[in-house]
């Protein structure tokens, strides 16, 4: 049975039926969350995107035929109900829903669509396996928690747009079918039909186009747009993801940060009621690494890294001396109150340290009586141990963890142990939002595979003026006018001031090991464009998915994307990617060519 | 030379320097439109996105060094200027620009970027060949008219969003990497790396996803999003184009039309100050064809088609009798005041008619003295001629044109002649905006190639209830709940109410000649989804590019797209599509396979 709604008009959403309507007629429409048959009376919880509303069908009010239809109703049927809003009997009030003191006594019912029993219940905090939920995403998306996530996402996108519009930014669309990016991640390619053997690439970001827009005088650009990277997926990655992207002309770092702090403040206040105190703290890259072992530090808790290299220098303990001698360091963190961790737990931390790249983890547990439990103290002089403990502000009951290695390994190991411990100690409150700017990133990093420097951000990132003289002599020392915005240990956005001067750009390419010819081959039209008058400019791009994920307290961006893909970049619902007809490939001048393993 | 702007801060955009600032210091930045050297004084027209501002450099104010720099300035240099706002001498006032009574006397100058001489002048209404303009799109985009177009587009997009937000629509993103569409235009394909031999398709529209969102209870959805069709291009087509897409639940045709009339009214009022009187006129498809020979009629002028079949029936003139006898018709239009067209011009119309598919064009010119000039009157009785002229309301000085053929040819020929004449007679005022809804489209059309009916809109379009009984017996007679919104002869949007009842959907598939198995193969996950409770729903999608094009009075959507593609779907600026490395194709398990012509 599926009746038409001819002549009917919805007058209210379910949860918008309020007390002021008691005694009035309403027409509501939605899905049946639950139906109960209580001796001649049928109760239905009707659901729409606003919430639930109880409907009562009794034979007297709705008549015999209508009542028969009501008895036929099952979960997820779509129905339209006309009826009178009434106050519920006090004993049947449901305090858990906003309409819990009301019900609608139905005088009319149409079954607009029947439904088979869904493969899982439509309910909040579903415990159903994600795989099944994603196969039936259209049912999963009926869950109120996912609906709230989608509504929040809508709100964040639109209040960002409104803020940027008010600030004079122009929403300008850049192409999706564009050119393969040199120096980037792996591109998604799109074969051209007209130009056989040629390919478009889907954009990894609108980077080049937004810089061209600055060069064209648009002054302030933004776009909320899809970007594509064909990389292996992790929990917070998707083949296609959404950026809030912006670029501004005639600006320096502080201008970009200024407008974005105001945007973040508005975003978090208006979307989830969280105050972001301004200015947001800034850490240089070097400070972030030294203090938190990470360029995306989580500032919701302390447990900072402490460099004890000076204290242990020439202490005679081989592990420490070796690391320092090789140009590395010895650093530690103080896991406050973890001095009573059982050995098994400390060993687990040590194993984690090895996974993070360390050769091992040294530790000192401070007993409540002030004595130490440790496997390393015996290698150290007593005053060295005391100095280490003092430097880490060790108190009875604390657990001190150490890593001695090159700095990269030390940062990574302690940075991650710090996070693991914070999770174990439940220091990561999802309702606390700690922002930090990380600035002054290194301009270049050495790529061992390609045996040359590569841009850490991208090849158009502006070096800091005071480091320009190092570009030829000590490129690894040059800091960039690049900045990330980090929230609770997640990089939610990043950007830089761009090079607008041709001489600096040429030096940059030289540092990357490109000849002028190679540079033109790779970045031709952008370099050509830069001949015709370039304003100083810079920008920033946010990962919208991640921002909304953090706002929702979700652990996966799949919870804030309507139709996400899974780890193998497929969609369990549509079964994309799929096979196509031979004719389609012929038109595109391509052939499938799967390399068989022999 | 490229100086930094360290320590400088722009205080105003160029055209925002107003009279109230006379006597104040300002700092402005922008591009040099023009530089004139008038005996020891350098004048510069400085340009930013707001407009022009005159800068005066005199040695006394700026000093010797600064003046030397000023002399060095050329067109398109990017400069920053500090100076005092002054009133111009009356004889140098430029009434053509808003800042024409002012100038800034520079006390500071920095050359932020030099510029080579661009390949064409940056000026409004450029006469430069489009090919060159698109190669240097970043310079073309500096032209004030293109900048206005982009700003208008920004405004239209954002006021549409704000309107839809206010109406409770949710902005929900749908995937770009999805599945190849059966029954659609040609897809752009994206090879999958993880699933060798499998392909994503870029969406031709979010149609299926938006219907799923309705099924998921989102109630009102919208998105301004890119869509992709790999078709041969025309002036108003691009490989990627932008839709304002929406879908609503629990609605019928009038609801969708209602919300969209309000949107159109707001859009045109707020963006370009044009009042759209509501309700917008509605024409059924049949009326549109009968009166204008087109399903996208231009209502800016009359010249309607008139059916004279009844009048000429059995008139003895073979051409007329033959057409009517074969089930066709004889129809005419009255080109008012064109009775004095020279024979050459009338013959040109006849040739055009043949191009539009007619075997020929009959005509009667009415001389000022009431006599006729015509090649056909001699075949007709005098009273038949008089009746024809009367039916077309022919007056002295008019030119009557006729076509006799099957209806399809008659509509197409006269519909197009009507437009050609209107253009010649300059009846197509770009500042007049005439909207019309075309409704009640045929549900199906017969496809001769596939020897079956295909959906005119798409296979989920709802038939009109009163025609449902014809679906099995006379499918070509069934009208659909489909509607287009037409502006000045351009379809700017279209949509339909969708089928939400399984039994009707099955009948629809049967009419399309699909077995149940075939239907599931093609539309599997959507049909599965429809088992679980579907609300009545419908929607509409606008072509944003076309709307903005019409608002701008442009003839091409390339004028309202920042980085458009040309006819062969390539981008002259980026040279996309391009070749890629062999390794990239290997990773995607594909091989280029160009069929050589032998």
TrEMBL record, chains A, B:
Residues 161-564 form the Aminoacyl-transfer RNA synthetases class-II family profile domain. The keyword Amino-acid biosynthesis does not apply. Keywords: Aminoacyl-tRNA synthetase, ATP-binding, Cytoplasm, Ligase, Nucleotide-binding, Protein biosynthesis. ATP binds at residues 229-231, 238, 491, 543-546. GO terms for biological process: aspartyl-tRNA aminoacylation. Its EC number is 6.1.1.12. L-aspartate binds at residues 183, 229, 457, 498. PANTHER family: ASPARTATE--TRNA LIGASE, MITOCHONDRIAL (PTHR22594:SF5), ASPARTYL/LYSYL-TRNA SYNTHETASE (PTHR22594). Catalyzes the attachment of L-aspartate to tRNA(Asp) in a two-step reaction: L-aspartate is first activated by ATP to form Asp-AMP and then transferred to the acceptor end of tRNA(Asp). This is Aspartate--tRNA ligase. It comes from Anaerotalea alkaliphila. The gene is aspS.
């Amino acid at each position: 049975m599926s009746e038409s709604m001819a002549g009917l008009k919805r007058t209210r959403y379910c949860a918008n039926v309020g007390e002021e309507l008691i005694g009035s007629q309403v027409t509501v429409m939605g899905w049946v969350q639950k139906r109960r048959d209580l001796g001649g009376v049928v109760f239905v919880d009707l659901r729409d995107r606003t919430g639930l509303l109880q409907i009562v069908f009794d034979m007297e009010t709705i008549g015999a035929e209508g009542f028969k239809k009501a008895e036929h109703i099952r979960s997820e049927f779509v129905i339209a109900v006309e009826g009178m809003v009434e106050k519920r009997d006090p004993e049947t009030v449901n305090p858990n829903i906003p309409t819990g003191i009301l019900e609608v006594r139905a005088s009319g019912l149409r079954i607009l669509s029947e439904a088979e029993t869904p493969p899982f219940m439509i309910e909040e905090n579903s415990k159903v396996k994600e795989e099944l939920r994603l196969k039936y995403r259209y049912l999963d998306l009926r869950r109120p928690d996912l609906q709230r996530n989608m509504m929040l996402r809508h709100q964040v996108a639109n209040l960002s747009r409104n803020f940027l519009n008010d600030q004079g930014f122009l929403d300008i669309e850049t192409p999706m079918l564009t050119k393969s990016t040199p120096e980037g991640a792996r591109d998604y390619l799109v074969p051209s039909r007209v130009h056989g053997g040629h390919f478009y690439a889907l954009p990894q970001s609108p980077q080049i186009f937004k810089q061209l827009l600055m060069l064209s005088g648009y002054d302030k650009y933004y776009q909320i747009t899809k970007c594509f990277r064909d990389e292996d997926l992790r929990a917070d990655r998707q083949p296609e993801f959404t950026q809030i992207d912006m670029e501004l002309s005639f600006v320096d770092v502080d201008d970009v940060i200024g407008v974005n702090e105001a945007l973040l403040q508005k975003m978090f206040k208006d979307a989830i009621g969280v105050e972001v105190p301004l200015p947001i703290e800034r850490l240089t890259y070097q400070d972030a690494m030294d203090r938190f072992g990470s360029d995306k530090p989580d500032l919701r808790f302390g447990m900072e890294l402490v460099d004890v290299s000076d204290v242990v220098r020439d202490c005679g303990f081989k592990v420490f001396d070796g690391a320092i001698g090789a140009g590395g360091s010895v650093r530690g963190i103080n896991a406050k109150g973890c001095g009573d961790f059982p050995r098994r737990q400390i060993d687990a931390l040590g194993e984690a340290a090895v996974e993070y790249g360390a050769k091992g983890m040294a530790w000192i547990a401070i007993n409540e009586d002030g004595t130490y439990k440790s496997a390393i103290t015996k290698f150290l002089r007593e005053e060295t141990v005391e100095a280490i403990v003092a430097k880490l502000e060790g108190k009875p009951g604390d657990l001190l963890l150490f890593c001695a290695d090159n700095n990269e390994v030390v940062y990574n190991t302690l940075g991650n142990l710090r996070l693991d411990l914070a999770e174990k100690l439940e220091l990561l409150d999802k309702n606390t939002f700690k922002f930090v700017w990380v600035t002054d990133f290194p301009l270049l990093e050495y790529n061992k595979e390609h045996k040359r420097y590569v841009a850490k951000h991208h090849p158009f990132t502006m070096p800091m003026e005071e480091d320009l003289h190092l570009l030829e002599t000590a490129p690894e020392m040059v800091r960039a006018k690049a900045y990330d915005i980090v929230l609770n240990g997640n990089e939610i956005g990043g950007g830089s001031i761009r090079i607008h001067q041709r001489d600096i750009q040429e030096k940059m390419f030289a540092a990357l090991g490109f000849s002028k010819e190679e540079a033109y081959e790779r970045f031709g039209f952008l370099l050509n464009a830069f001949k015709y008058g370039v304003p100083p400019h810079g920008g920033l791009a946010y990962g919208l998915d991640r921002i909304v994920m953090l706002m929702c307290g979700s652990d996966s961006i799949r919870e804030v994307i309507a139709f996400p893909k899974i780890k193998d970049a497929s969609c369990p619902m549509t079964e994309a990617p799929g096979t196509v007809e031979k004719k389609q490939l012929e038109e595109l001048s391509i052939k499938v060519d799967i390399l068989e393993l022999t």
